[in-house]
Amino acid sequence: MERYLSREDAALYLTEQRGLTVSKNTLQKWVTTGGGPEYQRFGKRAVYLESCLDAWAERKLSAPRCSSSGS
């Protein structure tokens, strides 16, 4: 069974497990501006599933590149 992660733990997961530096403050900002990972509410707290964080990170990554020219 998958665990729910707090915003702080979600930021640590993305940074330490996935190597994608994201702060808990940035996750909070994306809640109001959009563009962040899917989350749910548990009372007043936002909680994230690892699978949702992984899927969001994959969507945000560009295709592999061999040069910066985009060709």
Automatic annotation (TrEMBL):
Q: Return any one Pfam family short name.
A: HTH_17
Every Helix-turn-helix domain range: 20-60
Q: Which InterPro entries match?
A: DNA-bd_dom_put_sf (IPR009061), HTH_17 (IPR041657)
* Highest taxon listed in the record's lineage: Bacteria
Q: What is this protein called?
A: Helix-turn-helix domain-containing protein
